[in-house]
Amino acid sequence: MLTYPDINPVAFGLGPIQVHWYGLTYMVGIGLAWWLARQRADRLGLSKDQIGDLTFYAAVGVILGGRFGYALFYHFDRVLADPLWLLRLWEGGMAFHGGFLGVVVALILFARKHRLPWLKLGDFVAPLTPIGLGLGRLGNFINGELWGRVTEVPWGMVFPGAGPDPRHPSQLYQFALEGLALFIVLWLFSRKPRPMGSISGLFLVGYGSLRFLAEFTREPDAHLGLLAIGLSMGQWLSLPMIAAGIALMVWAYRRQPQTN
Q1: Which of 177, 163, 246, 184 is closest to 211 using CA atoms?
Q2: Comparing C-alpha atoms, which of 63, 87, 86 is closest to residue 74?
Q3: Alpha-carbon 116 to chain mean position
Q4: Could you tell me which residues are annotated as the binding site?
Q5: Where does the chain cross the membrane (predicted)?
Q6: Mean pLDDT throughout 107-131?
């Protein structure tokens, strides 16, 4: 059993303002994605300034979509009881699947504004997305939240507030799978010209599959537990992503125009 490195979730303070590691991981993720996007800006024929606008659109989509998705998928009853809770972002609560839908809407709006094929824009953004996903999971680990299920593996950890039993550090599994591994696969795949939509499709299949697998080691939300046939909410939300990704890749390779 390993000892959980009890890290202060507050990175530093600026007078009455406390800056949390979780927020910093998101900022670093967005910053890295912005920097990498600037290196590939010529693929879309966008200027450096337009890449900044694209990053802003995506960031707003992540925040709004992530919050609304968390409320809809995991705490809809709480919203009904206290609608203003939805606006209290400082109390925490974000969901990837909601954030994903928010980014899709943001990309469609940006594509219309700049008269770009939105699937081509999706292919451009997809390889950059795992950066933020992985760093966000590191933020979860630092916060000691979203821990894994009880386990007997040698690297199990006892998380504060999770009882005396060692648990899977599932946040680190997700960092390695949905963050690092998915980034490498998508980055290498996107280095060569691909049919438009295929990179986006691979992201959907890759993230959905890796999230589905990681959920087997992650403790289900206490108020939801496991749902039908023993699957978690995260797994049920990932299945449509996998199906949509497969369909998109099949369509892309049958249609064949290249995205870059």
Answers
A1: 177
A2: 86
A3: 24
A4: 137
A5: 20-36, 56-74, 94-111, 172-190, 196-214, 226-253
A6: 93
Residue 88 tokens, joined: 């209290």
Query: Which helix (H) or strand (E) element contains residue 248?
Result: helix 233-255
- Structure tokens given for 40: 């590939």
Tokens coding 56: 């802003």
Cα 183 versus chain centre, distance? 12
Could you tell me if 220 and 233 are in contact, meaning their C-beta atoms sit under 8 angstroms apart?
A: yes
- Looking at per-residue confidence, does 49 or 231 come out higher? 231
Burial 127-156 (b: 16+ CB within 10 A, else e): bbbbbbbbbbbbbbbbbbbbbbeebeeeeb
For 5-46, write each residue's pLDDT tens digit. 888 888 888 777 888 888 888 889 989 999 999 998 888 888
DSSP H or E segment with residue 142: helix 129-143
Residue 63 is encoded by which pair of tokens? 């925040």
Buried residues in 182-217 as b, exposed as e (16+ CB within 10 A): bbebbeebbeeebbbbbbbbbbbbbbbbbbbebbeb
Coil, strand or helix: which one is 43? helix
Are 196 and 255 in contact, with CB atoms under 8 Å apart?
yes
- What is the residue extent of each domain of the chain? 16-255
As a whole number of angstroms, the distance between CA 120 and CA 95 comes to 25
Amino acid identity at 31: G
